[in-house]
Design brief:
- The protein is mainly β.
- It has one domain.
- The protein is built from 3 helices and 20 strands.
- A 9-stranded mixed beta sheet has the order 6-7-12-13-14-8-11-4-16.
- A hairpin with a 4-residue loop joins strand 13 and strand 14.
- The longest helix has 11 residues.
- The two termini are 32 Å apart.
Length: 324
């Protein structure tokens, strides 16, 4: 496996492909039958394909309770047409370990909690295409993890780093889709969590005053900031902005880091919740607890909550046509 950084525009278009059978991400400890399920918002995405698709990690929880159902998307991801070049060759996916900064960082690491878990998502046990990728609803309880009252990222440090470099701040803003003056508010609106599954994204680096972009798989345990639909928007180990992955026509070449638990069949993409998520239900493996974390909060308002009563509904995504 190559460890060269991705070669050098910007991807366009959402992934596409037919749906296949269900699968599941890791779950927490055995659930006690609750009288009321925990509060979180979410739901199946609308069939209209207009919405775009889409790190210490805590020690892995005991796989006992099905927390969320997912679907297999018989697609792979890469760049689809476009005028600019991507930092990552056509048909290439760059693996990024949870605790490593990686190539072309926007800032120094602001990750506060990044240990590598011993395993990732469990296999589905079903026969799937080699290029299948599962989609998981951004509001699904247990999709993300964290430690109670501890932020996985130092958001204020991230704001200071970017504020001290106007050029980087401007480029970050352009990728995030906000004004340069709006970057602090944008970052404070995000919620710090940790991935519990190896997750596919488009990562954007900074080189020579401009943004680069490459397809990446972030290791379970990676500290990220997610938006109000549950979609990863910033990788804290490098300060890089994140956007959804883009569709690919062939099985990609895997480069970059490696970890024992990596399996292409276990990689997921996060589908945005159709409604705003006010409370994220995350798993704390250090204390074997379920936590309710408020949107945009850095852990100060965390409180214990009941384990999920039942699996979240599976994600339903209609095949989409890559944008041109």
């Amino acid at each position: 496996m190559s460890v060269e950084p991705p070669s050098s525009g910007r991807p366009t278009g959402p992934p596409s492909g037919p749906l296949s059978g269900p699968s599941q991400p890791p779950s927490g400890p055995p659930s006690q039958p609750p009288s009321q399920p925990p509060g979180s918002s979410g739901g199946a995405p609308t069939p209209e394909p207009r919405r775009p698709w889409w790190r210490s990690a805590p020690r892995v929880a005991v796989i006992a309770t099905l927390v969320v159902a997912a679907v297999v998307l018989a697609v792979v991801f890469t760049r689809s047409g476009g005028g600019s070049t991507t930092a990552g060759g056509d048909g290439e996916v760059f693996l990024q370990a949870a605790g490593k900064t990686g190539p072309e960082p926007f800032t120094e690491s602001t990750a506060k909690d990044s240990s590598v878990p011993p395993v990732s998502a469990s296999p589905t046990g079903s026969s799937e295409p080699a290029n299948a990728v599962r989609g998981v609803d951004g509001a699904a309880p247990g999709l993300y993890g964290g430690t109670r009252n501890v932020s996985s990222c130092d958001v204020e440090k991230q704001i200071r780093f970017l504020g001290a470099d106007p050029a980087k701040n401007r480029v970050f803003a352009s990728v995030a889709g906000v004004r340069p003056s709006g970057v602090p508010a944008f970052l404070r609106s995000l919620t710090p969590v940790q991935l519990r599954m190896d997750t596919r994204v488009t990562n954007h680096g900074y080189r020579d005053g401009a943004a680069t972009s490459y397809q990446a798989v972030l290791q379970a345990g990676t500290a990220v900031l997610v938006d109000d639909r549950g979609v990863p928007r910033t990788r804290c180990a490098c300060g890089n902005p994140l956007t959804p992955p883009v569709a690919q026509q062939t099985t990609p070449k895997v480069t970059g880091d490696s970890w024992p638990s990596f399996r292409p069949s276990n990689v997921v993409v996060v589908a945005p919740s159709t409604t705003v998520i006010n409370i994220f239900v995350i798993y704390d493996p250090d204390h074997h607890d379920w936590i309710a974390r408020h949107r945009g909060d850095t852990g100060g308002k965390d409180h214990k909550t009941r384990p999920p009563a039942r699996p979240s509904p599976p994600v339903s995504v209609s095949p989409a046509t890559p944008s041109t």
